[in-house]
Amino acid sequence: MYRSLAVGPIGVKASLAEAVALASAHGFAGVSISRADIEAYGIESTRSLLRNAGLVASDAGLPVDFRTTDEAFERDMQGLQTFADMLKAVGCERVNTWLLPGSDTLPYAENLALHRDRLGAVASVLAAAGVRLGLEYVGPATARAKSRYPFVHNQTGLFELIDAIGGSNLGLLLDAYHWYTSGGNASELRALTNADVVLVHVNDAPAGVAVEEQLDLVRRMPGETGVIGMATFMGALVDMGYDGPVVVEPFSDWVRQLPPDGAVKATADSLDRIWPQR
After folding, report:
1. Do 56 and 91 meet the contact criterion of CB atoms below 8 Å apart?
2. Distance of CA 231 to the CA centre of its chain
3. How far apart are CA 201 and CA 245, in angstroms?
4. Average pLDDT in the 8-37 region?
5. What are 4's strand-pairing partners?
6. Sign of the CA dihedral running 156, 138, 249, 38
7. Nearest-CA neighbor of 77 among 93, 64, 87?
8. Domains, the chain, ranges and CATH?
9. Neighbouring residues of 35: CB distance < 8 A, sequence distance ≥ 6
10. Cα Rg of the chain, angstroms
11. Beta-carbon count within 10 A of 178 CB
12. DSSP single-letter state for residue 9
């Protein structure tokens, strides 16, 4: 596994060139990219930026609205093949997205069928370009309590959806905060293989807050509070032979207030705190 920098979750506004420079300066091996990044720089310049810095394009967000209307989904699907080809051209092999943990209109079975069909279509296009799709469940009870009908919110439910979709390029975006807030345990992590995990997010949870009261966007830097058992979490990645990117996603107020270089340094330091020594 390797360290990759995503500037958005730490509150840094930076162009791709600036993000690459920051990642290189602070010892990251990869950087998250977006469709807008590639379109702004072009394929050749994007490849050159990464190559000259010795970095890889670790992952990208999925630019398809599969959560709302048929019209929105069909509109975005029209551009997915072009996006997949762009990713392949710059060497990015992992795309990720997250699932709403509930719905006000669709009971579980109907929602599962909708996600099966839409994400199945997405996965098929990405597979043709050699790109994997990582799906992230949202763990906090407070998040799904907002909806009439709960949906996928833990590892078991996520793999139920993946099994329903089928396809060999689907896997889990494993987020430490969502693992913790969903009631995940060590045995759940031990059940995973490298092939199951597309991307990893690391973070911590506020101290003094019951797990069922944790809020999705109120988190801490990895290892900051010790609420989440990061030794167990990171050790499981080592044991499964995980070979992909590890990205810090803390939504931390104090990190957002730092200048860009300071925020990236704090991010690198947080990874030093939790990185396995074996």
Report:
1. yes
2. 20
3. 9
4. 98
5. 30, 247
6. positive
7. 64
8. 56-254 (3.20.20.150)
9. 60, 63, 83, 86
10. 18
11. 26
12. G
- Contacts for 210 with CB less than 8 Å, ≥ 6 apart: none
pLDDT in tens, 55-79: 999 999 999 999 999 999 999 999 9
Of the pLDDT bands very low, low, confident and very high (cuts 50, 70, 90), residue 185 is very high
The pLDDT tens digits for 149-165 are: 999 999 999 999 999 99
Contact predicate 99/137, CB 8 Å? yes
Return the amino acid letter for 186: A
CA distance 65 to 50: 28
Residue pointed to by tokens 């990015």: 92
Average pLDDT, the chain: 97
Residue 101 has which token pair? 């943990």
What is the structure's pLDDT at 277?
87
CA 36, CA 176: separation in Å to the nearest integer?
28
Nearest to 228 by CA among 136, 140, 151, 102: 140
DSSP structure string for 211-251: GGG--TT--B-TTSS--S-HHHHHHHHHHHT--SEEEE---
Query: What is the C-alpha separation between 141 and 157, in angstroms, rounded?
Result: 14
